[in-house]
Amino acid sequence: MPSKSNNLLDKLLPKNDPEASKAQQTALNEEQRKVYEQLDSQFVPRDQSYIKRTRNLRLLPLEPARRGGKYAYGEWAHVTGIFQTLMYMHLDQKQDNLVLDVGCGTGLLGIAAEPFLGERGQFVGIDVLKEDIEFCRDHYPADKFSFQHLDVYNTVYTPDQASKNLPWDLRDNTFDLVTALSVWTHMDEETAFFYFKEVSRVLKPGGKAIITFFHLDELYEKSLSLRQPDMKGRYHMTPQTRWVFANSAYDSKYFFCVGKTPEKAIGISKEGIEKLQQHAGLKRIAYYPGNWKEIPGVYFQDVMVFQK
To answer: What are the angstrom distances between the C-alpha of 222 and each of 217, 293, 304?
Structure first.
């Protein structure tokens, strides 16, 4: 007789029926999501009980809180490791760091940063989504982690918030490291310039910033001839042609988008990145191209490291 566990796994397997209506397929997808959530709630605590070498992975959240373009438990662990490595490579001191994460979501980069906080360090997360801030405040240890809601408008994420481009409630020259994972990929030009200047303001002299982009450089241009319709990426699992930034974002010369709503995904030209740096007074010291360009990469998006 089949076990309950096997029945759940059977329900989880994709069953896309070409004859099904959109409403029927939506209902099936929702059923699969609920089954995945049920399995995840049993698997993750058990899996975390086996952790031996990487203490901070105990903080990985359950399925309902794994958001921000990364959903699978394995991918959250993988991306945490990528950015933990980048932080180690670029932090001058390995302990007692003050780290600010812009667009912290549900805390992935907080998990990556925890080993570098030491006894006197602190992680501060900022996000425009209240629900993410509320989750983080409940989930992460309050002695090392604090979170702030930024009540500003974004066409895609917070259309009900009226304010635009509010300065962060943080002191000048404070942080050893500022991070931002898939944040400048959702900002129009005015917002991007404003908050890049804020990054510079809050960094200590010599401090670093690790920020991801869709950087529209020569590698991007070369990738256009490689992209094939209806094909998933060579090194990622999204459509190759999804990442073609053919439209100007609000008539910008430097910011481009993939659809009618720019903030869903914005790419920045080489000239745009250079102007961001000049405006903020930051120097780029490292660049890791992403695999969205149909090449092997450290991460999906392009990762850049800046220094004040």
So the answer is: 9, 8, 20
Q: What are the residues whose beta carbons fall under 8 Å from the beta carbon of 143, sequence distance 6 or more?
A: none
CB 306 within 8 A of CB 285: yes
Write the single-letter amino acid at 44. V
pLDDT grade for 48, boundaries at 50, 70 and 90? very high
State the amino acid at position 9 in one-letter form.
L
pTM value > 0.90: yes
Do 261 and 219 share a structural domain?
Answer: yes
Mean pLDDT along residues 35-52? 93
What three-state secondary structure class fits 110?
helix
Query: What is the spatial distance between Cα 21 and Cα 17, in angstroms, rounded to a whole number?
Result: 9
Q: How far apart are CA 295 and CA 286, in angstroms?
A: 18
> What pLDDT does residue 2 have?
45
In this predicted model, what pLDDT tens digit does every residue of 144-183 receive, in sequence order?
Answer: 999 999 999 999 999 999 888 999 999 999 999 999 999 9
**Which residues fall within 8 angstroms of residue 230, CB to CB, at 6 or more apart?**
239
**Pair 130, 21 in one domain:** no
> From CA 213, how far away is CA 287, in angstroms rounded?
10
Question: In which residue are the tokens 């120097």 written?
Answer: 283
Residues 15 and 76 in one domain: no
